[in-house]
């Protein structure tokens, strides 16, 4: 820290790719252990600033805005540096690898070149644990180290690296190093989990925003028609699930999710709840209860349309026995939930609602988002059938 006086600037923060990003196309970055950041979109900021009270338990906590710029070293490696300004939340301090999550520390050891991210990553990261071949995201595989052996807590979903590489390429080609970019600071909703199992679901029967071009609109409509978005109102956008029998995370990406039939969607949902040894039936009821609570809230949100937003279902891949791991407390909203599950809505760049500051003349909709509700209802039905052993 550069002093403690509130009148002085805060220390710069080196941003790292968020190792548990399983979906989306925007690069999510780690700001500190409990905070991630993403490029600011005015429509998303407007949503967080006027978030209905009832929805707050189902969304990440909004922590403010930070300025970010590119920095290039003598070898041409690019990094992203956050420069906290005055009035930033006290919870967001300097990122320090001492005592940090091993997942974060792992990425600290990597240098990022916008032209050779893959090669640099393979050469500089211990164990070379992420990639067996050159960024093959379209394949479904267990992640291994270079020798084909499992690595203790060192296999992570490669999607974050993919998004980060693309993001650096875009930024470096369009802007110089001195340009400041505004990023949103948001709660890291998986920070309390030892082995976060994450399912990223694209919700609703429509994905394009009101501002989409005719070309983009047609593209998104086609994706929905050819996937479970049309038939179920939900499709898989990414997944990682810890396999206790191998010590690896099993990962799926959005390309896999787009190809699934309704039955394939159901089987993948079941796979998300399987730890390699058994189906985690203990998770089903608490997840269903959270989804029903969210459904009740969404039904009351008149004028809101959550186009292209996602829903995360999260649980810890390491089962915790009663009386163990007391240093990992349950959040207050889950104090009666021994299975440590969470359900959170994310990605609101195309969310529209009456009174949006970023769009003074939005397309006004009556009633709740029926496409989103349709997806939630089908998701609950499928999980209920798994609970009943069907």
UniProtKB/TrEMBL annotation:
GO CC terms in record: cytoplasm; nucleus
What keywords are annotated for this sequence in UniProt?
Answer: ATP-binding, Kinase, Nucleotide-binding, Transferase
Q: Which EC number(s) does UniProt give?
A: 2.7.-.-
Which Gene3D superfamilies does this chain map to? Inositol polyphosphate kinase (3.30.470.160)
Q: Which GO terms describe its biological process?
A: inositol phosphate biosynthetic process; phosphatidylinositol phosphate biosynthetic process
* InterPro entries, A to Z: IPK, IPK_sf
Q: Which Pfam families match?
A: IPK
To which protein family does this belong? Belongs to the inositol phosphokinase (IPK) family.
Instruction: Report the protein name in the record.
Output: Kinase
